[in-house]
Amino acid sequence: MTTPTVGTVPRGLQRQQRAEEFVRQVLELCADSKRAQADLRSGLGLPYDRCQRMHRHLMRLVPDEMRHPEGRRPYYAVASLIAARSRRTRDEDAGREEAGQKPSDTAKEGAEGGAPTGKELSWWRRPNLGASLADAVNRGLMAPGSAESELHLLARTGSDSLHARLPALIGQVHGRGAVVDWAVLLEDLAWWDFTQDRIATRWLEAYFRSRDAAERAAEKAAASDDSNDDTSKETQ
């Protein structure tokens, strides 16, 4: 089976590039205008038809084919989440951007406890919401039980409840070192009503994969410390 294409670019890649471009434009908009940031933040957690202050900024950014409310809703949700970042989180994001560090690099560093590799990860290996929750747990920002319960709850919830829970959840996850890949989140929200089970499975897999890597790294470090202590005692 061949991959659908538009011109010479696969359709899936076009969607990903479109998500990346939208996120870039929203970040620039928030950085350039406090009024625009406030307008976008005003829609946080609200349904699309109550986001009146956001239209003047997003009508030109959301793809033309997403003219129906359900299609526009994920874009508005992600834009409001970006605009609602704390000053500390915005500064951290700006610092990572200046350093050329991607969200995938930071999430990998949090999972493995080492320096990021700098290698470009494929779209499906970039940090989704599950990986972001694991990143927060690995950094001590969130309890493992709370993160797992939230993921299992999200896996069973519909789009309305998902959008309602995201602001508080992202507030716990993003900042203080943990990261969110906004473009990946946008794509997942856009497809939630069509492939909810598949997306929820990816989130759970990413969460437990990252947690397992962090736990194995911690066990290895502890074993190394014990070995060094034993060696030190023998030489005394």
Description:
The protein is mainly α. It is 69% helix and 2% strand. It is built from ten helices and two strands, in the order ββαααααααααα. 36% of the residues are buried.
Compute the CA-based radius of gyration.
20 Å
Number of helices: 10
Query: What is the beta-strand fraction?
Result: under 5%
Measured between the Cα atoms of the first and last residue, the distance is: 68 Å
Structural class: mainly alpha
Strand order of the largest sheet: 1-2
Fraction of residues in H or I helices? 55-70%
Order of helices and strands: EEHHHHHHHHHH
Mean pLDDT: 86
Q: How can the largest sheet be summarized?
A: 2 strands, antiparallel
How would the global form be characterised? elongated
Number of strands: 2
Low-confidence stretches: 109-119
Key terms for this structure?
mainly alpha, 10 helices, two-stranded antiparallel sheet, about 240 residues
Short account of what is shown:
Helices cover 69% and strands 2% of the residues. It has helices spanning 11-32, 34-41, 55-58, 69-83, 87-98, 103-112, 129-138, 144-156, 159-173, 182-235, and strands at residues 5-6, 9-10.
Topology diagram in text:
Elements: E1 5-6, E2 9-10, H1 11-32, H2 34-41, H3 55-58, H4 69-83, H5 87-98, H6 103-112, H7 129-138, H8 144-156, H9 159-173, H10 182-235
